[in-house]
Amino acid sequence: MLALLLFSLLVLQSHALDVRVPESPVVVLFGSDALLNCSFSGVSAFNLSDVSVFWQLSDTKRSVHSFWKSQDQLTDQDERFSGRTTLFSDQLMVGNASLRIRKVRVADEGTYSCFVRVQSYGSAAVIMQVAAPFSKPLVSWDSDSSLKPGDAVSLSCVAYGGFPQAQLQWQDGSGHNLTENITVSQLANEEGLFSVRSVLSVHLEPNSTYSCRITNPLLGDESQASVTITGQPLVFPPVALWVTVALAVCLLALLIALAVVCRRKIKESCEEMRAEEEAKELEEARVLEEAKSEATPLKS
C-alpha cells in the first residue's frame, strides 16, 4: 500500500517540493527522544487534507510513520516503531513535517527519508546516529604483597554501557602511550551497548603509575582511571631481619661452644697420649735395667 502511494506521488508531481533536513548527522543519546527535523516550502495555500507525509528507513524502505487524509496511517508501520513515533500534525500547515522517536535504541540508528506531498512532491534523507557514554573505567590487577621491581604484572581496565565501540589507550606515569603487550575486547549486550575490557602486561618498576583512557568517538567525551603500584624493595622486612640476626648469633655461639669442646677433647687426648708414651718409656727402662742386672756376675 505504502509503495503504491509513493509511486503515485512520483507520477503526480508537477514540480519538486522544497523539502529540507539537517545536512549533518543527528546524534541522539541512547534512551532519549530523537527529533528528526524536516520542513517543506514552495506551495501556495493548502488544506491539511492536502498534506501527505511519509517517513521510512532509506535502506530497507520500511515504514516508520505515515500521515494522510488529515490523520496518522500506521497500518504498515514497522512493529519496532509501534507506539514510539509522533508527527507534529498541528504544525503541518506551517511546513513542519518533523518526526519524534521516543526512547531511542541502538537498532534505530540509520538513514531516514522524509517524503512530503502538497500539490507537488519532494523528499530528503537525514542520518541518525545513536550514542551512549561509557561508565568510568576501572583499573585493577592481581595484587600480591610480594611484588618486586622486575616482576611481571597484568593490569585490567573495564568500562560498560557505551556505544559505539570505544577507543582505549594505556599510558605510563610520564604520559607516554603504551602500545605493546595489550589486548582489547568489546562485547555487545542484548541492547547493543558495548562493554570494553583491556589487559596490559608490564614488568613492574618502582612506584609505577599506569592510566587507562576510554574515549567515545561519537560523543568525544573521555574518562580515565589510574593506578600506582609500589613494588617491595629487595631487602628483608624488619621482623625477618631480627629473626635472621638471632639465628646467626645462635649459630655463632654454637660454633664457638663446639670449638671449645673440640679443643678440650683434643687437649685431653694429647695428654693421655703423652702419659701413655711416658709410661711406656718407663716400662722399657725398667725392663732394660732388670736385664742388665741379671747379666752381671756376683762377686765373692
UniProtKB/TrEMBL annotation:
Disordered: annotated segments: 281-300
UniProt keywords, alphabetically: Immunoglobulin domain, Membrane, Signal, Transmembrane, Transmembrane helix
Membrane-spanning segments: 239-261
Pfam families in UniProt: C2-set_3, V-set
Composition bias, Basic and acidic residues: 281-293
Compartments, as annotated in UniProt: Membrane
UniProt cross-references to PROSITE patterns, sorted A to Z: IG_LIKE
A GO term from the CC aspect: external side of plasma membrane
The keyword Transmembrane helix is assigned to this record: yes
GO biological-process terms attached to the record: cell surface receptor signaling pathway; cellular response to lipopolysaccharide; immune response; negative regulation of T cell proliferation; positive regulation of T cell proliferation; T cell costimulation
Region forming the signal peptide: 1-16
Superkingdom: Eukaryota
Domain Ig-like stretches: 31-131, 133-228
This protein's record includes keyword Glycoprotein: no
InterPro entries xref list: BTN3A2-like_Ig-C, CD276_IgV, Ig-like_dom, Ig-like_dom_sf, Ig-like_fold, Ig_sub, Ig_V-set, IgSF_BTN/MOG
Protein name: CD276 antigen isoform X1
Organism of derivation: Danio rerio
Gene (name only): cd276
